[in-house]
Design a protein that fits this description.
Blueprint lengths: L16 E2 L5 E2 L7 H39 L2 H12 L7 H34 L2 H31 L7 H33 L9 H12 L3 H18 L5 H24 L7 H36 L1 H5 L7 H5 L2 H15 L1 H25 L7 H14 L1 H16 L56 E2 L11 E2 L3 H4 L48
Helix pairs in contact: 1-3, 1-5, 2-5, 3-4, 3-5, 4-5, 4-7, 4-8, 5-6, 5-7, 7-8, 9-13, 12-13, 12-15, 13-14, 13-15
Length: about 550
């Protein structure tokens, strides 16, 4: 089950920014939320109406309907494939809908108008219509079409930066955009082919132009346009992974990806013009298929690296008491995630499965956020986003943790002793006694307060230490305040390297100063407070 990417929204602060006199200034009209949504929706709707009229004019009503019915076949398969690649940290559906609509409407409209205008201008200027068609197909069309599709990737990169964090996000964004573009282009080509068959006497069957066009464009090469534009997405993904101070690399990577996309598109279009038609099959077998396999391997290996990142980053939050011991293991395995959702669905229904899916997505984003902080790529809103994600995890823990524990028990067995019991059984989370350390249940830390405390220790740390309370305020669902993550645990130093390089050491006794997480940083334990920490649960 996929869910939208985990970046929650909260009640907005007072609109505007304070003026020098202390009076709030209202934002400009173009900064209002409804304008930011209404503008692209209106642009895409207008582009859709115009492209619909143009395609219908070229193919006729009957040809348009036939082309539409045939062109839709590869779309669900391609969307499902890109969504599968994005399952580790799934992006929101609205981003994918925008990309598909941009490719099918805006990019297709730009391509039809620009290609027609440029080809006609070259034909008039050179008095060589055939040469103009060849030049337009091999040079102009790749430049125009790939630039139009790259615009959608650029917009998501700039205005949905939270959802664009790496190569996989770039591949998915570019691939869905190109799928929309190919959908509209296939309608045009298939509708035109059907019109040709009708004008030639209505010959149908396997020998028809429509059947040949369907075989080449839908059966043999449904991945052609996505394959070209994926290079642009990889370039933007590399830029997203690059530290901000390396501006040259951040700029050249997307441009290099766009140039590669144009080059591959040009090679593909030009393959039909040499070798008496055999050039197409030569390029297809010797270049396109191997490149498709290489890119598939790259994306899948990148996805596996993301899962390793999740397993490596989440244990810090286990030690701090926010997560339970099996969760890093479960979050780093797509099979374990699916097992947890299925267990929740079987026990508590579809709503519980959605809650578990949301919990998994929030935890994954938390791991990626921490990884960006450790590698010096965290933004100025690191602490705010971290607290938002932790709050969302805390609100879903009652449903999600037993399901995740079940998945951990099923796949790892005795290695994960001490994990939560099944739904409706047991009395809290007992300390672990397995052969491996159970994060968050060390005697010096004590069990988190959602279960029975071990060895008489207070929640989240040694006796006498409790993190400051964090009250999410109104609109947080009526939950009691819970602790903010301690700064020495998870906040990077100046958003570069983390302020610590290993898990916090246990406190030896009450009143002893906390370990020194980094030079010039020292934390003194505060007296226990009944107001801090999450409320105990049965």
């Amino acid at each position: 089950m996929a869910t939208s990417p985990p970046y929650p929204t909260y009640p907005p602060a007072p609109t505007g920014s304070p003026a020098p006199g202390g009076v709030l200034r209202h934002p400009h009209w173009w900064q209002r939320t409804w304008v930011r949504y209404a503008a692209p929706i209106s642009l895409l709707a207008l582009s859709g109406l115009v492209i619909l009229a143009l395609v219908r004019q070229q193919t006729g009503t009957e040809g348009f309907l036939v082309g539409l019915g045939l062109a839709v076949f590869p779309v669900p398969l391609l969307i499902a494939a890109f969504r599968w690649l994005d399952r580790v940290e799934p992006g929101p559906w609205r981003n994918l809908a925008f990309c598909f609509a941009w490719g099918a409407c805006a990019a297709a409209l730009v391509a039809i108008i620009a290609n027609s205008f440029a080809t006609h201008w070259i034909a008039v200027a050179t008095a060589d219509p055939k040469g103009a068609d060849t030049l337009g197909m091999t040079v102009i069309a790749p430049v125009v079409e790939e630039s139009a599709k790259a615009t959608a990737v650029l917009l998501v990169f700039l205005f949905r930066r939270r959802h664009f964090t790496g190569i996989v996000d770039g591949v998915v964004t570019a691939g869905v955009t190109a799928t929309g573009f190919a959908f509209t282009e296939n309608i045009l080509y298939l509708g035109t082919a059907f019109g040709t068959d009708q004008s030639d006497g209505g010959h149908g069957g396997i020998a028809s132009v429509t059947a040949a066009t369907f075989f080449v464009r839908v059966v043999m090469s449904p991945f052609a346009h996505p394959l070209f534009t994926v290079f642009t997405g990889i370039g933007f993904g590399i830029s997203a992974l690059t530290a901000e101070h390396r501006r040259v690399r951040r700029t050249l990577a997307p441009l290099g990806g766009l140039l590669l996309a144009m080059g591959m598109h040009s090679l593909w279009n030009g393959s039909t013009s040499f070798g008496d038609g055999y050039g197409f099959f030569a390029v297809y077998g010797a270049f396109m298929v191997p490149m498709f396999g290489l890119l598939t391997w790259l994306v899948i290996s990148t996805r596996q690296r993301e899962l390793r990142t999740v397993r490596a980053e989440l244990p810090a939050y286990v030690v701090a008491g926010w997560l339970t011991m099996p969760e890093p293991f479960v979050m780093g395995s797509m099979k374990a995630r699916r097992l947890a959702r299925d267990h929740a669905r079987d026990r508590l229904g579809k709503a519980a499965a959605r809650t578990v899916a949301e919990y998994e997505a929030y935890a994954t984003s938390l791991a990626f956020l921490r990884h960006r902080g450790r590698s010096g790529r965290a933004g100025a809103d690191f602490v705010v986003r971290e607290r938002e994600l932790l709050q969302e995890l805390w609100h879903r823990r009652e449903v999600a943790r037993p399901a995740l524990a079940h998945a951990g028990h099923t796949l790892a067995g005795a290695v994960l002793w001490g994990v939560p019991p099944m739904y409706g059984h047991g009395h809290g989370y007992a300390p672990g006694h397995g052969p491996f350390p159970v994060y968050g249940h060390h005697p010096s830390y004590g069990a988190p307060s959602y279960g029975a405390p071990s060895h008489g220790a207070h929640a989240y740390g040694a006796p006498g230490y409790r993190p400051p309370a964090y009250d999410p305020g109104p609109g947080a669902g009526g939950h009691a305040p819970h602790p903010a993550v301690p700064s020495q645990y998870a906040v990077p130093s100046q958003y570069g390297a983390p302020a610590y390089g290993r898990a916090p050491q246990a406190y030896a006794s009450q009143g002893q100063a906390a370990y020194d997480p980094a030079p010039q940083v020292r934390v003194t334990p505060t007296p226990p407070s009944t107001a801090a920490g999450p409320p105990p649960s049965a």
